[in-house]
Design a protein that fits this description.
Layout lengths: L4 H20 L2 H7 L15 E3 L6 E2 L1 H13 L3 E14 L2 E13 L11 E14 L5 E10 L18
Parallel strand pairs: 1-6
Antiparallel strand pairs: 1-2, 3-4, 4-5, 5-6
Helix pairs in contact: 1-2
Organism: Streptomyces alkaliterrae
InterPro entries: NTF2-like_dom_sf, SnoaL-like
Protein name: DUF4440 domain-containing protein
């Protein structure tokens, strides 16, 4: 991690707030966390971008927030466990890279129990900008799926490899 301790901690808090808002399906808070709004005039609306795994680049704050509204409307449950988090701060720009270990679920079963859960891995790059008010807001985000091959014929995880 590079940058002053206070800046790194503030960026880490902003990054955590992003994932918490996603888990709660809180579009209002998510909008406050993205740059380009009335509270952050240094970043133009059109300069904000997101790439969701498997999607094309979306440009503009309204398109970005619309994409999250669509995702939230079709996701019953989502939880992120972040690993490999690295934060670099240079002036008023911060870069966060991490692995998102995602657990998500579809609609609830007829009896009200949680629907089927699916796990996945995404590597993410989150770029933050510090506004004139001192707040760190997301400027750009890119997520790429991690393809994991399972070798049915390989050794069990606790078995030693043979020479």
């Amino acid at each position: 991690m590079t940058g002053s301790g206070a800046d790194v901690a503030a960026v880490e808090a902003a990054n955590t707030a992003l994932y918490e808002a996603l888990e709660r399906g809180d579009l209002e808070t998510l909008g406050e966390l993205w740059a380009g709004g009335a509270q952050d005039v240094e970043v133009a609306d059109g300069d904000v971008s997101v790439v969701h795994p498997g999607w094309p680049v979306l440009l503009g704050r309204s398109e970005v927030l619309r994409s999250y509204a669509l995702i939230m409307a079709s996701t019953e449950y989502i939880q992120f466990f972040l690993t490999d988090v690295e934060i670099s701060v240079l002036g008023d720009t911060a870069l966060v890279t991490c692995t998102e270990n995602i657990l998500s679920g579809g609609p609830a079963e007829e009896d009200g129990s949680v629907g089927p859960l699916i796990g996945g891995l995404v590597v993410a790059t989150n770029v933050f900008h510090r506004g004139a008010d001192g707040e760190w807001r997301l400027w750009a985000r890119h997520g790429s799926p991690v393809l994991v091959e399972q070798d049915d014929e390989g050794p069990e995880p606790d078995e030693p490899l043979e020479d």
